[in-house]
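Action item from last week, closing it out:
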Amino acid sequence: MRKLTLYLILFLVLIVNTGVRGQSMSPTTGRNGMVATAHPLASAAAVEMLKSGGNAVDAAVAAAFTIGVVEPDGSGLGGGGGMVIYLKDQQKSIFINYYGRSSENASQVDFKSGRDSYTAKAIEVPGTVAGLLLAHEKFGSLPLKKIMEPAIKHAEDGFAIDQTLAKLILDNIDNIMSDSVTASVFLDDGFPRMEGETLVQKELARVLRGIAEKGRKGFYEGKQAEAFVEGIQARGGVLTLKDFSSYQAEITSPMKGTYRGYDVLTSNVPQSGISLVEGLNMLENFDLKASGHFSESARTLHIMAEVDKLIYADRYQYLGDPDFVTVPVKGLSSKEYALQRFNSINQSKLDPPRYRDAEYGDPGVYENNLTRETVREPEPAEGHTTHLSVIDKDGNAVALTQTLGLFFGSGQTVSGVLFNNAMTNFSYNVENVNYIQNSKRCRTSITPTIILKNGDPFLILGSPGASRIITTLIELVVNVIDFGMNVNEANLAPRFYCQKFEDYLHVESGIKPEVCEELEKMGHAIKIYKGIDLFFGGAQIIMVDPVTGEYSGSADKRRGGIAMGY
């Protein structure tokens, strides 16, 4: 009977639009607070904190802990991430980097991406707990136990599996089955748990309660850390007690830029905010509005795709952990360098005729940094992530993105926690700036972003989607600032994706057929996705009306979730 049910699920997956949680995309507005996350229970947790007198950081941390429970395929205690915080009254911006870090013994691991991606060898030191607790300690106001109540409840009592999670369990069943403990959580007698079933995670609830009571000591030290290390090492991983106890999230300033009179605050290196800034700087040299929206103008889409290709070439060549390599931040983020790069684009055709032949630039000219010899190696693949955006009644805002790496991370669950496989994000070519080294942070596509207008939050946004995150955010910013779309229009507009390490220009079917035809004449190899597709991310956006001050929120229909305001 279970086999018959499984075949029925497979059939339904083929005919159901993927990645949609089935919730309405009606505009959501409010004046006292707004939240947009990838799951209704996470959004509800954030709103509960705001209504209880908490600020945007309280709400974001509550939502982040909760989303790790109810969207376990994308993030959780075993992962990492980053957040941009803006404190309006102080006109102060903060970036907290809590992405993973490789073990002190990472160089001793015979790790091969692909072969070992779903093993304990792929696990980095998780940063989520450290990052969320640091944000709460420095900028939150409600008690930690209050903030963690929703996450603990949904882990302890369970929650109904939605369509998106059910499909992802089915799609990733082989990886889930790589670990018997993980399989016991997401499978029932060897078969994937289905939509509507209740997913209970009591061991995870126990760990969450330990964090609520002891803070970081309840995760990174003592018996809990010992259990993690023992379980990971027994599976072939190399994380140590020192790796856990020494891990610290980092508070720095965000990467900053401007775009057509707006101020951009985004993730700092080695996350990919610098690529967003570089891309927007390049596009400032082109009148997008006069050329027409990229869904209707082949010229606009071609130029934006060429910009994408160049920023990915630069990203691969120069972006790495600044504790290990010199990143030419000043050059990569300068308007002068962007103009030089933009002027190198052939606006009439794809040039060179292969995306992979796009050349990196020389930002060192603008800051006297040495460039490096090019390294021909595919960009490491990232997988699933989650993003949430929050603003409170006082205008304080948080953009937060976190991840496990690929879908369900390493697939390895230890002591109730599903761990990341972020080691897959490193380069394994010794000449690359992102080369694996001991206790190093890998490059990542995470790009949480807040955009200001005259010192006030205007857009709070971010997206999952691996390397597509950067292109998705550029398109969203262009949709709103250049084409005057509201958050729902911007989120529902068709998307495209292009980068150096691709053979195709990926487009959603909402891009007009005649545009695709013209692009093919210009030399592009087009790959079309029917409808709107999970491949292109799942953005969560909040906009603030500069005149009325009203908040409007949008949760991306590609991946689901909900925006809630009041």
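Closing note: The longest strand covers residues 384-392.
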